[in-house]
TrEMBL record:
It comes from the Bacteria. Keywords: Membrane, Transmembrane, Transmembrane helix. Residues 71-250 form the DUF4350 domain. The keyword Transmembrane applies. Residues 1-30 are annotated as: Disordered. It holds the Pfam family DUF4350. The chain crosses the membrane at residues 37-57, 281-299. This is DUF4350 domain-containing protein.
Amino acid sequence: MSAPAPVRGPDTLGEARPGPAVPTAQTPTVRQTARRAVPWIVLALIAVVIALGGSLLTGGRVGPGTTLDATNAAPAGAKAVAQVLRSQGVDVRTVSTIGRATAAAADGATVLVYDPLGNLTSDGYRALTGEGRTLVVVEPDFEALQTLDRDVTAAGAPRGTASAGCTVPAAERAERIDPRATTATEDIALPGTFRVSDDAATCFADAGGRASLVRTSFNASPVYLLGSAAVLTNDGVDRLGNAALALNLLGGHRTLVWYLPSLDDRPVSGPPDIAQLTPGWVTPVMLLLVAVFVAAAIWRGRRFGPLVVENLPVIVRAGETREGRARLYQRSSARLRAADALRVGTIGRLSALAGLPTTATVAEVAEAVAALTRRDRLAVRDVLVERIPQTDRDLVALSDDLAELERATASAVSPSAGPDRKNG
């Protein structure tokens, strides 16, 4: 019996059957991610430099904030008076609308009103009085004086310090005040005085009879008209008896409503705006559409894991790829792009033939090829760089010249490999 034929494995055949291609992950490395973040880091540094420069130019100063705000610690604010009153057991409530002010003073309270912009109307002053409340109006305007007491009129800015000169307890305890504007309030507040033609009590009057504090009544409530906000500000309360006047004037009740009227207190006038004309269902629908758009953008824009490289399931011949790209160039008349593609391949091969490194420039390749083939440098450079094909005939001629230059270079480097080599 003859021996069975040996089984020939992959090593016997001389080549191994390729196994299934394993996808290779192309997730960006840490270095690539850091390189992409460089522009953002540069922008952040520029923003920091600009912020520091602005701080240095302004000397680190902050804005004055809201004048006479109980939470404002700037010189024009009144946080110092509010803090001292709280330490004495007074419940200081800061509000900015007439509704909240009347609600906070429902059980009887002292209500401080400072309205330099005239947001509060006559009806608002009427709503703040009555029910055992005490009203303190700082720097009242013409409408406020006409509403609270028509016999009290504005009389100009105070000229200096003034003594109490009245029997009002808060004024007597203060004895002497300085109602003039401070450095922080001279550009944003307008201290004033009053002239009285009735029996209202006047305090801190100067030689001309102009008072900085007037006590009157309105709607069965005591009303104090204080002509200067500087008496209550952080940088003015420590002058003379300003602190004593402020604490005694505002601390008469267990509750102090610190009310700075806002634009919400202005009466609505004129035609309705677009918000009033828009149906109520429009806003929810718009929000729903925005949410749907964002969800769709996230859904369509999300990535399904890291990018991978997989081998094609079919083999595409290089000639077919070359012919397909050539047809695309021809259809779009992209002769210069086609010429560049031919030149890039030729220059790479010429560089290898001339023994130049991969970092060699086109000029260096042209010089080396001209020296090897003993051709004019300008002619070689014209073929490799400068000639621009205008027609398809010019492109074909350029392709032939590139091929001929490559053959000449190969023959010059290795004569035995040239086209005239004889078979031995």
